[in-house]
Amino acid sequence: MGSSQSAQEEQEYRALAERTGFSLDQIRNLHKRFKHLSHDEETLRKEDFDEISDLTPNPIRSQIIDAFFDKRNFGGNEVGRVQEIGFREFLTVMSHFRPLRQNLTEEGIERIRREKLRFLFNMHDKDSDGTITLDEYRSVVEELLSSSAAIEIETATAIADAAMLEVASVTVGEMAPGQVYEGITFEHFLEILKGVEIEAKMHVRFLNVDTTTVRCGKL
Amino acid sequence: MDRIDAGILLALLSFGANAEDSPKPTTTKPPAKPTEHGPIYTAPPQPLPEPEKSYLPLFTLNYPRVQIPFEITLWVLLASFAKIGFHVYHKITIWVPETCLLISIGLIVGAIMHSVHEQPPAVLTSSVFFLYMLPPIVLDSAYFMPTQPFFENVGTVLWFSIVGTLWNSIGVGICLYGVCQIPALGVQDINLQENLLFASIISAVDPVAVLAVFEDVNINEQLYIVAFGESLFNDAVTVVLYNLFNHVAELPVVDAADVFLGVLRFFLVGLGGMLFGLVFGFVAAFTTRFTRKVREIEPLFIFMYSYLAYLLAELLSISSIMAIVTCALTMKYYVEENVSQRSCTTIRHVIKMLGTVSETLIFFFLGVVTITTDHEWNWGYILFTILFAQIWRGLGIVVLTQIINPFRTIPFNFKDQFGLSYGGLRGAITFALAYTLPNTIIRKKLFITATIAIIIFTVFIQGISIRPIIELMNVRKTNWKLGTINVEIHTRLMEHITAGVEDLCGQWSHHSLKDKFMRFNNRFIRKILIRDNRPESSIVALYKKLELQNAMEVLDTISGDISAAPSLISMHEEKASNKSSFKPKRTFLASDLTAMHEILSKNMYKIRERTMSYTNKHTLPNDSRAREILVRRHTSIRRSLRARSFQGSESARSQKYFSLPLGQSLDTGYATESIRLNADGDPALELHNRSVRPKPRPRSKQPRFSTTRARLDPLQELHSTVNMEDEVRAEESSHRPSRQSSSSSNSRSRAPLQRHSSLGTPSVGEDDPEGDEQQLESPPPAWTPEPPDRGSGGPRNPLLRRAQWKPQDK
């Protein structure tokens, strides 16, 4: 890399760090990976993801890949899908998996929690209509269980149904009288996962992380 | 019952077998030969020396023969009684840890013994402790270690337990040695090795009491698991150090080579133990693959293999605790899939029981010993011991946390650190180690006294105060005992996502490593070790568990229904009637119960039942649908089973209950309860029938009724009005159509839903704060005031039903 180019890159990294909360080291690292995945292109396409061999056995591989092409996860208010993403989007999606920083206030934790849950919710909610319908839920569960061949699809469906019932049973009491229960809304989603420390569990330890737990991002 | 008996017997056997240092049971007397003045009967004064020697004595006492097991039995019994006693008044154990109470009881017993100049039985020798009492305690904690969180925090756990224990032992030991140099204390004769030995003894934390508190206040999982794991592994480290220092204490001079060899040995011993445990764990798992035909002895393999691992490790002088811990951790997962449900329960119970007995005895004994032995009390040394132990513990936690925190995703904050260091109680193992010190140590008595002092100090002061302090400090909490399907699904989902994203980033870390291990596990290890080796997702496992739980509840409900509820109802309805008539029938024949269990278990895992009712579930937050099917099935079973004996008043009475008007028996608490139980199932029978009734209900007038009606609306169980005898079959056949209904009636269900929600869900709303487990398990109150429909209900079905039940009535 030429020096002028790297200076420019540095600038860009700084902006990205500001935006996503990653440290410069992490961004550099991820950029390297991005380049590797995209074969030195500026953008990543789905096919590039398909080439990752480690990902192949992952039962919800397609869901994960889809999440990277979902505009809802890019931070804006847009919905819909894109065909290819740049490094900025790649990083934004990745930033959902940043670990918690120390010394966060209650509200800060709650906000990050909501963000992470929103990411999960979006993964379920394929048609972006704000609810997880039974069919959407079923397909997720089926994929989740698809890794174990012993489970026939019927079982998966039944489990999804049972899970849905559970959601209904948890949340239906809180619904306003005029409402119809159609699917899991985001509020219900929050409700059912109230007990899960998602902020503590859904994270990836990005490399060069040693300093980031202290000083990554000041959102 | 017999499980417990067997366990006690086992414990006794182990004690008895070891009592080689105790007076051997005197030989059995040759019966025919005349004895001279009964020299065989040693201790107790006996009225034996009678002049007529030639007769066979009718009554003899042979106390020495039974003495050891007899006394041990009494001790165990006494300790167990104490345990029962603590729980009579529930609030005691909330505020005062059980260990405190046990020690107190021990103190009292010791005082009594002291006043009658009785010495405590000398059973707690080094070999008894290490060979018989320690393994159950360790096996208990290792087997019940929550595996997943443990492996998530394994680094921290090992860090704290190994480095922390070393830190404590060396720090406290050197400090105490320094203190010993003060002439005023008069303990200058204690050398460095002995101080180190003593320090290593008291650095083993044993936070049983603290763990109970942590569990109670739902402390965050990380803190809990670190405290748990630390206590487990630092036992191992302590014992290794203990042996090491014990050896070193006998050396006249220690040079650098000894130190180096000691360090080397430390690792050799630890890793060797781990390896042993791993091997035995896999062998045990592999063995249980073939035990299907010998279910009775299945649990035995678990105990024998872990004990064998322990003994062999002891034989080779490698860390036996490490061996048994690793063995338990390794085999647990595989064994529990191989063995039957019953064996699994047995294993858990026996392990728990042996561990508890061991620990209880040690604490109890500690109380007794505190009073009955003469102590060497040295204010300075003991106070400094307590002081240094606290300081080094606190310091160690803080320093070690600072080092480990950058490597943790969820760092420990100050409160967590405080909880960890304040939770460092000393316990049973510490005492036992001190008590079994070799007699070559001159100041053994002082060490025992100091150990007792620090145990009592930590257990009483810290153990009692930790709950209020933790609550006051508001340490981070989680409710980590959620068992809902959604939580399970999403936990798994998150795992897969994080593993996927890690793969995407091209880095290997915890999640993707775990993912890879699981894959390897599913592909190879399981195939070898597990008989039915289809990998089962934890979601499915949980789902099955919930189903099972549900079915069990239904069964409970039913037996409650059969025994308690009808009798109550009848008491309500006709107090004058002869109550005794149904009394004898409260007890079910065992064979009936097994038959029911069998039939239930065969039909239990029918997911369709849930599915069928899925669309309706939005309106009613429980699984009563599945239950009512089971109930109905059960009813028919009941009838077929007890065609003769059951026809009496009981069925008639439960039938009467069906027609109980609203509110009649809802007033008294118990009655409400029983009706709730029934409302869960039995009235549903009628609802089924009602759902086919053509007559529409005025919704606004009877909201609850229409709720239930809406709920049942899409059911296609027209068959259910047929005879009860056919219900099982009808039931089975109704699965198929309903299956489709569940998937296709998404849109259809909206109508009933709307209807339901427009009613404002009067009672469902009230109930909700109770949380979802509650709702899953208990019938919703919407059902409680169920029977209004009875009066207004169409006459057709009741008639039908009555006609059906009539023959039994008379």
TrEMBL record, chain B:
UniProt-listed Gene3D superfamilies: 6.10.140.1330, 6.10.250.2020
Bias (Low complexity) ranges: 739-750
UniProt KW Ion transport keyword: yes
UniProt keyword list: Antiport, Cell membrane, Ion transport, Membrane, Signal, Sodium, Sodium transport, Transmembrane, Transmembrane helix, Transport
Biased composition (Acidic residues): 765-775
Transmembrane segments: 66-86, 93-116, 122-145, 157-184, 196-214, 223-245, 265-286, 307-331, 351-372, 379-400, 446-466
Entry GO CC: plasma membrane
One Pfam family it belongs to: NEXCaM_BD
Residue ranges of domain Sodium/hydrogen exchanger regulatory region in the record: 564-668
NCBIfam families, per the entry: b_cpa1 (TIGR00840)
UniProt name for this protein: Sodium/hydrogen exchanger
Organism, scientific name: Astyanax mexicanus
